[in-house]
Specification:
about 260 residues; alpha/beta; eight-stranded parallel sheet; 11 helices; about 15% strand; binds 6-hydroxymethylpterin-diphosphate
């Protein structure tokens, strides 16, 4: 595998395909495997560098699903894609990651940053795939009840630094890893805004930064009526502060917006 910054030059768009009945913004839309595979192919045609396929919603309040159910959701989609679309698997479970990698996934996107399943680090190390480590305070079921930080940016930075060291100690090559502040995961609106505003602090950790703010409730609470436009604006702000990979539902709009932002950089 080439280093992640070469595989995903700034800015790269990661399309989102949630194969779930209950996801935050696209719940149910791609629950059918044919529809999900078609959405992934369309995102690739629209300019996505990779498509993030997930079988478990992590929206606030959700309780999670067993590995068997997650596999039942994602395997038919990956089989249909047949290695023809670059895939990231959004999972914190080793069994799901292993099967997805067998079916061609080149990245594991773990919202628990290797804290959810003790076996996952070994699967990533052994297979040599890319890895995204994301910050989350608490767990999805309760994370939005009362998120608190003294300084959200330095706490997220030191968490990510610690998880990066853990991953490297478990045999995962540092050059394959990117970091993510986890917008909306145990954070208030002000925490989320501050993390994007001061993204340079996370970029200074020396690894590419992935930002997922697309269609999140912070944008709604800011008063956005058109979530696609608001998402692109937030993505560009993140890019200008150093983000490399933008996780987004509306791929074409993000590719266009980020191409202009790059030309103006
Ligand atoms: N956000 C969501 C899910 N996975 N992974 C990373 N690395 N970063 C994120 O910000 C991120 C993520 C939540 O968004 P969505 O996929 O729209 O919803 P759900 O978790 O309900 O499927």
């Amino acid at each position: 595998m080439i280093p992640i910054e070469q595989r995903f030059p700034r800015p790269s768009v990661m399309g989102v395909v949630n194969v779930t009945p209950d996801s935050f913004s696209d719940g149910g839309v791609n629950f059918d495997p044919d529809t999900a595979a078609a959405a992934a192919r369309r995102m690739l045609a629209e300019g996505a560098a990779i498509v993030d396929v997930g079988g478990e919603s992590t929206r606030p309040g959700s309780a999670g699903v067993p590995a068997g159910e997650e596999l039942r959701r994602i395997v038919p989609v990956l089989e249909r894609l047949d290695g023809n679309v670059p895939v990231s698997i959004d999972t914190s479970k080793a069994a799901v990651a292993r099967r997805a990698i067998e079916l061609g996934a080149e990245m594991v996107n773990d919202v628990t940053a290797l804290r959810g399943d003790p076996e996952l680090a070994g699967v990533v190390a052994e297979t040599g795939v890319y890895l995204c480590l994301m910050h989350m305070q608490g767990e999805p079921r309760t994370m939005q009840l009362d998120p608190r930080y003294d300084d959200v940016v330095s706490e997220v930075a030191s968490f990510l630094e610690g998880r990066l060291a853990f991953a490297v100690a478990r045999g995962i090559a540092e050059e394959l890893i990117c970091l993510d502040p986890g917008i909306g995961f145990g954070k208030t609106i002000e925490h989320n805004l501050e993390l994007v505003r001061r993204l340079d602090v996370l970029v200074a950790l020396g690894r590419p930064v992935l930002v997922g703010i697309s269609r999140k409730s912070t944008l709604v609470r800011l008063g956005a009526g058109d979530l696609q436009t608001a998402s692109v604006a937030a993505a560009i702000a993140g890019y200008e502060r150093g983000a490399s990979i933008i996780r987004a539902h509306d791929v074409a709009a993000h590719v266009d917006g980020l191409a202009v932002a790059k030309a103006l950089a």
